[in-house]
Structure formats: structure tokens, C-alpha cells
Amino acid sequence: MSRTRIAWIVLLVLAILLPFFFSSYRVTQFTLVLAYAVAALGLNLLLGYSGQISLGHGAFFALGAYVTAILVAKSGWPHLATIPVAAAICAAAGFAVGIPALRLHGLYLALVTLGLAVATPQLIKRFDGLTGGTQGLAAPSPSVPGFLDFLADDQWLYLLNLAILVPMFVLAAGLVRGRVGRALVTVRDNPIAAKTFGVDLAAYKTRAFAVSAAYAGVAGSMFTITVGFVAPESFGFALSFSFLAAVVVGGLATVAGAIFGALFIEFVPVYAADVNEALAAVIYGGVLILFMYVLPTGVVGLARRVRLRPKQEGERDAVVVDRGVAGGGAGERVRAQ
Amino acid sequence: MLEVAGLTVRFGGLTALHDVELTVERGQVCGLIGPNGAGKTTLFNCVSRLVEPAQGSIRFDGVELLDRRPHEIAGLGIARTFQHLALVPSLSVRENVMLGAHHRGRSGFLAAALHHPMVRREERAMTTDAEDALERVGLSHLADHPAAGLPYGQLKRVELARALCETPRLLCLDEPASGLSHGEVAELAALLKRLAAELELTLLLVEHHMALVMQVSDQVVVLDFGRVIAAGPPREVQQDARVIEAYLGAAA
Fold first, then answer.
1. What is the CATH number of the domain that holds A23?
2. Tens digits of residue pLDDT in B42-66
3. What's the pTM value of the predicted model, to 2 decimals?
4. Cross-referenced Pfam families, in alphabetical order (chain B) (predicted)?
């Protein structure tokens, strides 16, 4: 068994034990970390692997959250049954955004997707018949099933979310390695060359968008399941920036990075407020800047560098690969390096 | 095998290729030379479908390439390398070469996400193909090395291995000798001759290194300002007055 796999299993065991060692309040925070981790993982598939930026993933997150809330509150669906629906609707929405994204690069794509994020709260209010408008919509969290009645509510919700997260990570791990994973990073680093050995650029880019949005949608469902209530102010554009921060802090083009990034965006603001309520935002911003200064390749990037030292570290710095190809390698290069 | 006819490419007001005719026979090594800006790379980019010509036709084994989309070209049996390297620095040498086998794979997003057994089967086949290609260019020992950080000459050979991994019938090489040392060029000439013979490849070669072109080519085509000014066996072309004036003369 590979060391990476052992590390994942240890991490999973720790994650299962975690709710039995923390207060109810903390466990709920960790439950939100699970939702954010799925969203960050989805954004990383798009940004880290396929090289397309989105500042609007909060919109897909909101869409997933509302699909679950509406189906549960208005149609009485069981919570888990709403997840595939949220994923499918968000995948379709992501695909639709992915088509114009084929012609938009870098900053232009960032702005278009930012538009989605900015418009989201207003759109939710607009369709108040369905969404409950500014009042929000209550969709009570699932209660502990009888055979697990030794669990507290918060522990149950945490473990339920963990059970949703694990397959999402397994799917992503399959996606980013092998033929599809290699093609995705080539779409990012050298789109022109990718065409010449048979990668259908448009198909890969739009599918990456669809998959990424589906992840954000599932994360939104997890949010609703955890919180039991959705309202427009939970889905401001700052949420999209948080996801971006989580991806970069965790490490671009990594699967495990999403977990560290999600821990960061959930807990650093909380601790910042503990230090000084009035200066919380300043402290959070400062920590973010410091973090990027110290760990430009994110948490997982650092771990990789430590592992590669001393054999290849020096060589890695001496990159002589000319990425420009005939006609100029178009496409974004939003990379941490 | 490759028949280019009446090919014209315009970039705005500039005519990069003007009514270009070119035929490469099966098994032939065709050298494409000409001063900088003559349109050699543009011609390559038309064959790869990266540049849309204004008019003309490019037929490969009877198939009109201009009716095909760029990502379909590899599947038809045409591989190419780039003048400036087009590798993925974050992947290992082996993985970069495996990219060449991409067009033979059938597993998509769903199969990959679900860890379908087909993915592992394809992965094994691609690994074998990549290792074969690396062995042919003499880079087996570097398979696990990241593509970033290798000397330029070796990176060029990694790209050659990737193109071989596409199992092409026509291999288009854009300045394979640029940036190589004198010794490396000699090795490259021997390597290209051997590969062409062993793999029954047809080669289309853009190159400024005159000795290399004259040594390996069966036919040399000279482009100047987007027009073919001479074509024929290396010896004849070398003595063509127009070529000497346009190219060899200018260089001397």
C-alpha cells in the first residue's frame, strides 16, 4: 500500500473520531469545513487542474443549497435524495457557464464569473415565491436515525457530511490522475500542444466547469443539511473569494489541499475574532497575506517540496521549459508559483 | 502521402503562405527550409489545424485535413513537435510522453472518476508505449524525472518521444536541432534516420541547420516569403540560383 494511501486512511480515521473530542459548537464548525472542502475541491479541479478561473463558485454553492432546501421544505424529499439533483442542476449550470468561458481568458473570465457571484443574493430575493426571499427558507436538518441514537445531533450531522465528502474525494482522485488528469493539466499549461495530440480542448474545458460546479452544488447541499436554513446573505460574493482562498492556501492542483484550505477559511476568521473582535477582518487579511508569503505553493505544495528535498529541489528551480508555443500559449496561468 | 495544394494563409494584410504546393511521398524525409518568416511553421500549423488557411487543400492519405478538427489530427497518424518546447513542467518525463498516447484512450471523465478497470488497463498500455518511445530516443533512465529542470537537448528528445508515442505515420519536426550542440546534432541526424527506417515514418522537417537537412532529406522544399521557390533533391536545391540568392547567399 502506498504511503499516500496510508496517509489518507489515517486522516479518515482521525476525521471519524474527531466529533467525539470537541464541543458541539466546534463540531458544527468542522461540519461546515467538510462542506467547504468539497466546494474548494471542485474549484481546484477547475482552477488548479484545467487552469480556468472562477470567482463565482458561491453562486453554484447557493444553487445547490437552495435545491436541497426547496426540495426538503416544499416537497418533503429526504435530504440525501436531493444531492444528486443539486449536483445535476449545478453541472448543467456549470456547463452553460463553461461555453462562453471557452472564449474568455484570465481576467475576463474572472470578471464574468464574479458577476454571477455578485448577482446571486439579488436573484435569490427576486424569486421569493420559491426561495422565501429575504426571509430565508427553513429546511430542518435530518434527525439522528434510531439505530444511531447514541450520537448527538451535531455528531450525526458531521458524520453524515463526512459520508458525503469521502466519495466526492474518491471521485476527484480518480479524475485527476491518469489520462484525464494529464490532459487537464496540459489544457492548463499548454493548450495548443494539447490539441495536437488529440485533446478536445472545448470538451475538456466545459466538462471541467460542469464537474466543478457539481462539486460546489453538492457542497451547497451539505451546507443546507448542516445549517437547516438558507438565506440570501449567506451567499454573498465574499463566499466565492473564500473558496478561492481555500484553493490557493491548500495548494493549487492538489486533492488534499481542499481540506487544509477549508480549515483555514472556517477557523482563521473565528480565531481572528477571538483575538480582537474589532480587528478580525484585518487579522484575517494579514494572516492570508503572511500565509501566501511563507507558503506560496500552499500547504500541500510545501509538503511536496519537503518530500522532494534534497534530490530534486534545486533542479526544480532551474526551469528552462519554454511554455509558449507557436501562436503563443493562450489560457490563464493562475498558479501559485 | 501528404499533398498540399494551393495553400494560402493570410494574417490580416500579411500573406504568410501563397499558393503553396508540396507533396511528400510515403517513407520520404522532406526538408522544409527558408529564411525566418518564410512561412515554414505556418505550414506546420496548417497541417496541425492550428491555423485556418484562407484557401487550399491538405490531403493526408486521401483524407482532407481541412475538414477535420485539430484534436482529430493525431488520430489520423500525424504527430508533430514544436519549435519551442511544449511540455508540461509539472508532469514527469514518462507522463509527458504518455500524453502522446492520449488519442488512443477511450476512458473519459466518468470512467476516471469511478476508477473503472478500463482506466487501469489503458494506463498500463500507455505506460508501455511511453517507455518504448523513451527507449528509442535513449531517455529511459529519465522516465521518473520531472520534465522541468532537464537540459534543453534532453527536453527536445522528450518531445520527440512524445510525438513517437502518438504512433504517427507522418512526423512533423519543427527545428529539432535548434539549441543543440554540434555533437548533439550529429546524434540527432543518426537518430532520425534510424527512427524513419525502423518505424517506417515519413518525416517533414523544418530546420535551419543546413548540414542536418542536406544529410537526412530525400527532398528539400525551399520557402521564401510564403512561396515555394525550389523543390527537389538536396544536391539540386543547393545549386539553385534562386535559393542561393534568397537563403544560402544571404546567410554567407
1. 1.10.3470
2. 999 999 999 999 999 999 999 999 9
3. 0.90
4. ABC_tran, BCA_ABC_TP_C
